[in-house]
């Protein structure tokens, strides 16, 4: 009987520890080359893996302005000039829709279509996993491309302003 109770206790601990596991979203570099690079390099520089969602529109707007506001002139100029990686937009990590976003986030100018796809993937993840205001979740990356400009590699350009642009 003790063995059965011990097994039941072990099983209940296993279920309890996994019942509260945080949902995770992965950005695969095969689908999100510049985005996965930005997230991976930001995390390597000490930005958090675990984020907490905010749905407060004012907080999200303030976070986006604090993290990407300094790139607006570069994004506009790149989009007028055309060229690699355009149309462009600013990606930030941690996300503006997280409590960790805003000042101190890492900004990178990326192809706009990739940034738009990331926004859709994140919205779908929030919905599918019940990630509501105040819910914590993890962000991971896989297959992050190397930098170098060769086949399958990313090009990272430091613009005169000091902002960085990613394209492939």
TrEMBL record:
<dbReference type="InterPro" id="IPR029476">
    <property type="entry name" value="DNase_NucA_NucB"/>
</dbReference>
<keyword id="KW-0732">Signal</keyword>
<protein>
    <recommendedName>
        <fullName>Deoxyribonuclease NucA/NucB domain-containing protein</fullName>
    </recommendedName>
</protein>
<feature type="domain" description="Deoxyribonuclease NucA/NucB">
    <location>
        <begin position="46"/>
        <end position="140"/>
    </location>
</feature>
<dbReference type="Pfam" id="PF14040">
    <property type="entry name" value="DNase_NucA_NucB"/>
</dbReference>
<feature type="signal peptide">
    <location>
        <begin position="1"/>
        <end position="21"/>
    </location>
</feature>
């Amino acid at each position: 009987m003790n063995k059965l109770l011990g097994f039941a206790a072990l099983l209940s601990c296993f279920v309890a520890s996994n019942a509260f596991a945080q949902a995770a979203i992965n950005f695969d570099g095969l689908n999100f080359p510049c985005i996965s690079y930005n997230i991976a390099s930001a995390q390597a520089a000490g930005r958090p893996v675990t984020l907490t969602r905010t749905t407060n529109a004012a907080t999200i707007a303030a976070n986006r302005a604090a993290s990407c506001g300094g790139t607006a002139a570069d994004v506009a100029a790149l989009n007028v000039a055309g060229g690699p990686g355009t149309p462009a937009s600013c990606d930030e990590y941690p996300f503006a829709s997280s409590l960790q976003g805003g000042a101190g986030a890492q900004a990178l100018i990326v192809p706009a279509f990739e940034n738009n796809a990331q926004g859709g993937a994140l919205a779908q993840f929030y919905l599918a996993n019940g990630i509501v205001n105040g819910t914590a979740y993890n962000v991971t990356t896989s297959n992050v491309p190397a930098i170098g400009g060769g086949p399958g590699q990313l090009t990272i350009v430091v613009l005169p302003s000091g902002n960085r642009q990613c394209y492939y």
